[in-house]
Amino acid sequence: MSTSKKIIIVEDDLNLGFLLLDFLEAEGYRVKLCRDGQMGLRALEKDSYDLCILDVMMPEMDGFAFARQLKSRGYQLPFLFLTARSMKEDRLQGYALGAEDYIAKPFDEDELLCKIEVVLRHTTAEVETCPEQFTLGDYYFDYARQELHFNGQCQRITQKENEVLRLLCLHKGQILRREEAVEQIYGKKDYFLGRSFDVFISRLRKLLKRDPKISIENVFRVGFILNVEE
Length: 230
Known about the structure:
Shape: elongated
Structural class: alpha/beta
Strand content: 15-25%
Radius of gyration: 19 Å
Number of strands: 12
């Protein structure tokens, strides 16, 4: 199998973690192993991934807490729980947090691989319906690489800036409603998250200010419009 998909594993049992890493790399995936939740979050700040395989029983930050962090930080990352805890209540909690699946240890490698491929096919089909590169006046925005280019200079933007700018680009010349955008990025509607969203709009205005043909218009109490003069 040949693939460029990237998987992050958050697992404190390093023996199992390295077995998974070797198995998935042999299947053609690029894999990052993190031994705890904090290490996993730091890895996500530095790079993007297509899937997370997540243990539930970890010290300091368990898998459920890690999943909540994914949602609160706006990561649109599908994840699978892989755990020895198979109680119905745990499975329901995992699904409520947005897990694609809940796989009990010990697991069959072929079954795990099948579940991974199903999730990646599903998410890839969703992503492919939307472009990932945009030309905005004198700027070039590469969503997949979190990069904003201007006159040959490249700047890496944050995950949240990346997500907000993509939504603006997909709605260019139209109103991007604040409530809908907040729900897409954070997974829920919330007044204080809306205020946080406004902060990222301000940051993007500063990032795009070198081209006077670009503006982000505020529509009072409704949302924003990305305008680009042709």
